[in-house]
Amino acid sequence: MTSRSFTIQVPATSANIGPGFDVVGLSLSLHCTLTVSHRPYSSSKESDEYVHPMITYSGEGANEVPLDPFKNLTTRVALYVLRCHDISRFPSHLVLHVDNEIPFGRGLGSSGAAVIGGVLLGNELGRLGLSTERLLDFALMVERHPDNVTAALVGGFVGSYLKELDEVDEAAANVPLSEVLPEYPPDANENWGLNPPKPPQGIGHYVRFGWSESIRAIAIIPRFELSTAKARGVLPTQYSRKDLVFNLQRLAVLTTALGQSPPDPGLIYEAMKDRIHQPYRKTLIPGLPEVTSLITPLTHPGLLGICLSGAGPTILALATENYENIAEDVRKIFQKFDILIDWKVLEVVGGSSVTENH
Ligand SMILES: Nc1ncnc2c1ncn2[C@@H]1O[C@H](COP(=O)(O)OP(=O)(O)O)[C@@H](O)[C@H]1O
Ligand SMILES: N[C@@H](CCOP(=O)(O)O)C(=O)O
User: Structure pTM?
Assistant: First the structure.
């Protein structure tokens, strides 16, 4: 038993930024913070008994998140990482407090943050010393699109791809999620379910793009949840060459244009348009086409571009000024569809951190 106490902090993310579906992500200044410590033993008898982790939780999602460590996403991921290293259970007497600023199911990467938090937690509890590349492999076994988890782990404006794997590794990387994160039986013991499917090496690759310091992200957050799974379910499996080229042209320009100072709204507004996911998701997000077409750099000076954040329903407006005016005009459009919103001006921040508490 160790009395070590540490804090893991993971940022929110906005994926896609218009044309970069499943490719680009941006880490933003809302955080999920896990404080990890150990409950002191009250007697020597108690010190011999194994005690499961105790989770407490505050902030976004507090009324829906499971506090059972075998059901909570973060601790399930941590246990997966431990089991892959022949460690069959959490340390005894573990105490976790989660304070979460990232709203659930809004397209701000709450699940990606929970997964990265879990991977880092497993790495710390097992003192595994995993590299960034390997941490990402574990995250990609759970969250299978790289955009959110990569940006949450390394921070900034990031592009990523999944490496082409040989047949054996491809099969290993695509085992059903239920095998990676099994439903633990209530009587799970330390011999249960060892030998989990391990990630192949080097599944994800990424690069960080430049980001102009003058750009802020306005997150306009509708007051309803949309699960990423549901918003992926409405997408087609095939696209026309015209639509693919439309997105590729814009993404190629966007990744450099957002790093230029001063940023050029004439270039960026058009480069944040998309034909791969947003047109299909409008059925789930009333008002989306109106918001992305009526709020422009001409009507709203300071605006650079506007798109769906991740799988939605949050709208991401990138701007250098005039934040309130932009957000309030988006509010007026959503009001016509009986949708209430909250909005926040966010900064682009660094990636996840682990710090010791003294
Ligand atoms: N901090 C957290 N701890 C545990 N589970 C979480 C946490 N954050 C998110 N989740 C899980 O992820 C779900 C949301 O994931 P998802 O539908 O992908 O939306 P999002 O766009 O917010 O990532 C939540 O309903 C919850 O089950
Ligand atoms: N590329 C994914 C991103 C999902 O992000 P989230 O924040 O909504 O989980 C998608 O568009 O489905």
Answer: 0.96
